[in-house]
Amino acid sequence: MGEESVEEEIKADVVVVGGGAAGLTAAAKTAAKGLKTVVASKGLGATALSTGAVDVLGYRGQLLLDSPLQGLKELVEEEPQHPYSLMAGKSFKGLTRLLVEALEAFRNMSRNLNLPYYGSLKTNLLLPTCFGTFKPTCLAPVTALHGDLKALDGGKMLLIGFKGYRELDVRYASEALALLAKARLNIDLTVEDFELAFPSLENRRNLHPIELASMLDRDRVFPQLLRQLKKVKTLGDFDVLGLPPALGFSNPAENLRRVEASLGVKAFELLPPPPSIPGQRLQLMLERAAQTAGAKVCLACEALRFEVKGGLARALKAKFRGRAVSFKAEAYVLATGGFLAGGLIVRGKKVFEPLLGFQAGGLWRAPLLEEAFFAFRGHPLFRLGLQVNQDLNPLNRRGAVIARNIYCAGGMLANTDYISEKSGLGVALTTGYMAGLKACGEA
Amino acid sequence: MPRYTAIVIGGGTTGTAVLRDLTMRGMSRVILLEKKDLGSGTTGGCHSALHAGMRYIINDPKAAEECAHENKILRRIAPHTVDPTNGLFIAINDEEVEYGEKAFSRARQLGLDVEWLEPKEVLKEEPLITPKVLKAMKTPDTGFDPYRLALSQALDALRNGAQIKTYHEVVEVFREDETVYGVRARSLLNGSLEDFYAEVVINCAGPWAGRIAKMAGINIPSKPNKGTMTVYSLRLVKPLVSRLRLPGDGDGLVSMGYQQTTLLGTTSVDVNDPDQAVATPEEAEYMENIFSAYVPALRKARRLRVFCGVRPLVAPGPQTGRQITRSLILINHEKVHGVSGLITVTGGKYATARLMAEESVNVAARQLGVKASCRTHLEPLPGAEEPVNTFQLASRYGLPLYAANKLAARYGTLAQTMLEKYGEQAYTVCDCDQSLAVEVYHAVDEEFAVNLDDVRRRTRIGMGTCQGARCSYKAAVLLGKARGLRVAEIHRLLVEYLGERWKGVRLVLPLGDMADQAELLQAYYGATGNFDKLYGGGKRGRGD
Fold this sequence. Notes:
Chain A is an alpha/beta fold. Chain A has helices spanning 2-6, 21-32, 46-49, 68-78, 83-87, 92-112, 142-145, 170-185, 209-216, 222-230, 252-263, 277-292, 418-421, 426-439; strands spanning 8-11, 14-17, 37-40, 59-60, 63-64, 117-118, 125-128, 134-137, 140-141, 155-162, 189-196, 240-243, 266-269, 296-298, 301-309, 312-320, 323-328, 331-334, 345-347, 350-353, 358-359, 406-408. Chain B is of the alpha+beta class. Helix content of chain B is 37%, strand content 19%. In chain B, strands 4, 5, 6, 12, 13, 14, 15, 16 and 17 form a 9-stranded mixed β-sheet that branches. In chain B, strands 1, 2, 8, 9, 10, 11, 18 and 19 form an 8-stranded mixed β-sheet that branches. In chain B, strand 9 and strand 10 form a beta hairpin. The longest helix of chain B is centred in the last third of the chain and has 22 residues, at 487-508. Chain B is globular, with a radius of gyration of 23 Å. The termini of chain B are far apart. The interface between A and B is large, with 67 and 57 residues.
């Protein structure tokens, strides 16, 4: 076969498919164990589009959870097929232990890479978004932490907008936040708003978040921000300052500290929808962590299909920068994400995982998308995905293991819906952590 | 009690054309009542094809002649709503070649500017057309923006003193003996009822015209007919592409300059109630199967949504759908039913709306004793007075040239006026289509926009490749500012709008094209915005 002869072979102990939160967490784990680890990543996935905060469990149905723990016990009992339940052997205690361990590993990593994350399973932070809404989340980067509404009852917040920066309208965000905090949380919060202009960007009509963040990384632009903020006369009246989520890429934690120190007031970045700078920082941080541990990250590498024989994956066929390659490893982590990331596809009214070619599992409930755009229980489509056993091995529709040396993690897993549960990144980090352990043969 | 010379029912392309014609003949005490938004009915469900008659040249010569005549006029009076490209009718088998030759000579007889192109030339210009093309004919058929045309007509009428009330649904037609003398309308915004009296009522309600006539005790053999269309991401071809055959399903592809989408249409299915017509994914699949023989790239293009419009067909006999003429239908109820004061104009094509207006207003003018003759074909519509220097606009307002070109291509000279008035708001809201914030202010202040769907029709915000993920919230905020709304109302409008657009996304999901986009939309507003929990709907579960 002509095609076979030009195919390049790449050998490793572990091949991770997918370079988002789940895959990179797994890769960091296996590489740290001294296993030769290669990550095949097509490009930026859903992690880079996220708010950068780590949700573990924010809601059960319509009920806002005071803490992830409050909902996890019930989840383990009622949803034995949920990845959280599966991994922990359906035991609440086991699940708590696993989550604590996985989140601790993540927090340590974040501290080492100068963007420390804070939070615990014992409470959900309620963080303000650029829409002026709030959302429950478990871990937040230090840059978003001081927005927690739970700590602000009776407080005063000032939201800062930047002239020409269209991703945040502070006037309506402040009105919404005060209204929703009172109506939904019974938290009294005074929110005012102020729009400042960067003198050097006066004529810019559309400041893109990426552009703005890159500029704030520069020593010439950042002091402008401090100078302009200092001009706000009433700054002393406020408990906390809400900023556009654009405080640079290279050292946002330090940038925030400088704002707080020079103004004498706590500050935080609002949580953004995509394009999200905090999401991209998290992506970069996870990549760096995996690389530091020794993993090789192959970008622009499109996985095509697994070769499975005798219940074991023998190779992963891929296209790496236009060349045909065959990855061969002892263990594989499959973490290609959901529909948005390309890990799941819809063909002929069915949902497929394209690399194994299997129809996705989970509870098939028509219609897959509810009639209402905002559905209380989420849309059934997003609960579909690859069905796995407690070792995270992929299962076919009859429940049989497809390959014993493939471990699945992240957005492609069935029976979880990060959008409705507010469990995004929490499921990814935990299943990624577990998949890493399994690939090391440790769990 | 306000008394009008004429009441026009229906704010689509036809109703606004009638209103304009009335005022241009000196009748300024006229009012238009539209039950929803201008251009939200048949106009909103339109294929965006400005016919020049080629499609009907063999089977419906009268409609072809009307289209040919009106196409020329519209290119003159409303160039800003018309895509400057042409039509390309292609043949891929002997039968179509034969049809094409017959059509060609008829077209020449009709004075249509048609010519044969070498298949090689065609493929060089349009590489996504099938290499199997045997013959290709260039025609004056083209794409146009139905909303902007209707709005330009409305704006002209307003300048001449007419009144327009949107979200006013006619619920009763007043008739005493054999004379219609007014209507009662209900405001859909606050539920209030209001009566309007006039010497003549002109029924331009399109597929709802039968319902209006019935209120006056008159039966019209109305045959509302659904046409379904698929929106594809990106512009696949420059000209309007159709095939050299009798009109059939899924036989035309239309795209517009400065818009990042292509439309494939249509089907033809009779419906009982125009309000209940829905498009189906099966229709989209069916049309793609047909037309991908002509443009194979359709197979790989991403379907963004499926939607439908309802044709206002009328036929007394047993004919249905494609058998019914697309020529205009003018019913002078005084002559036909012995009821004076009511005129119905329906049928026709978008291209012929101006002609429909001319003929119906001729009848009205005779009844009213007005001598002035029609001038709508002579004077340019607002925006079309002169060409716009887009380089100047771009540099004066710091816009990307693309955005300036697009603005001018849709609003003509109004682009200048808008930017002068709302210069501070000259920034892009929609990354896909480069729509500007000024357009939202303009839509609210000058063009009756009330909700986000109204804004979308006027600005294309939310109609591009991301189907509103990035721009819907921004547009909602701008709408709120322009209307002076509180945030709770803005969130309500946003939720309502996302729900409305969701219908089209749900329809294409089974086709496999929008699962990723559906996730992005849901993650954007749900996972990040938490709007799903704050304002969610649908089936309730525990803890609700």
